[in-house]
Amino acid sequence: PMARNALFAVAASLLLANTAAFSLAPMTALRSSVSSSAQSALPLAQSRATRQSVSMQAAPSVGMGRPKALVPGSPLPRLYVYDHCPFCVRARMIFGLKNIKHEVRFMANDDVETPTALVGKKIAPILEIPYLNEVMRESMDIVQRIDTDASMGPAVLRPASDRSDIKAWQKKHAETFRGLQRPRYVMTGLLPEFASYEAREMFIKNHQMVGFEKADWKDDAKTSQEFRKAEYAKALAQTQTLLALANTALMELDPLIASPQHCSPAGLSYDDIDLFARLRSITIIKGITLPPKVNAYMETMSAMADIPLYTAMAL
Hints:
This protein is an alpha+beta fold. It has eleven helices and five strands. The protein has helices at about 1-15, 85-100, 115-120, 140-145, 165-185, 195-205, 215-220, 225-235, 240-255, 270-280, 290-305, and strands at about 35-40, 80, 100-105, 125-130, 135. The longest helix has 22 residues, at about 165-185. The model is unreliable at about 1-65 (pLDDT under 50).
């Protein structure tokens, strides 16, 4: 315990330092938009209201073997994302589940110009389909756009079910996980969107710690950046307390998972797009304990969606 507390003290000092904080940025070349090959696609847009009623048949082979890779057009569709962002993970998931070739562009967290030029504001994810001159935002709209286009292969998602139990679990424990995740995103420059000092500083300014109102937190007249960073350091110092709460919370989630391939009994659905996207970030927390069903679900969905977990770089 003493060694562990010393480790967190060192991490906290990184967060408090003005110029040296977050200086471990081996990926500084990723300053603005970083391109990496992945998989992607495009389908016909439908309103969010119709998503629940769209008749879709989930491919039974999903999870048993990857679909044949599909190249939709040239240049490939592009996804503009942040790696840590659960909404961006939603959009990436459907590309991986259908194994559609696409390009992933990780935007720097302080890159305002790229998303503004595409959709008029700083937001992610953004889907761009160059050969159709089409650009769209909103994660679930992107998911539906891709899944329901027959030219992109058969749909793989069933409609969302009424998983009020999972939604209640998420709401109950959101602050616990937020207190553990947010400081770890910006402890180093390992995530591409946080490769630069300025990108990490912007995240801290825009993402409040537990107990603070967002408007007050972001207002420089009310809250200094030094204070914000001190609160991030405090959250790190509370790791052992928060970690115990998080592990207990995951035990509550375990019986709510139907199978490794899907969280709901009916099969792979929009429920999984939402749940896995939210759960992935917890794997950045060193010492987190995934109970059997949750662990099997996370590992399986990671493979199916072709989106890695953070386990190997957990802090």
